[in-house]
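[09:14] KT: can someone run the structure on this one? pasting the chain below
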Amino acid sequence: MQLDTYADAVRDPSGQSDRTQLSGRVARIDQISVRYHPSKDPKERGVLVPETGGAMQRSVLIFRQSRGHHGKVVGWIVRLRE
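[09:31] RB: done, structure tokens below
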């Protein structure tokens, strides 16, 4: 299944998730991590926000394998081929 979690985050909460049935052979798995820092906006005191340029994409062989990264693993990109 393909799920766009970013679209879910900005969608009206009453809307349905966009899921698409996919099939194929896994060609590559990438781990996505992001480094966060405290917001400098006084209205967002104590809120962690993504650091500009602080994202990292690393290729892994399996989901359980965590490659060296900074920050927090926030997702995966899985590339399929027919």
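[09:33] KT: thanks! The first helix runs from residue 5 to 10.
[09:34] RB: yep, looked fine to me
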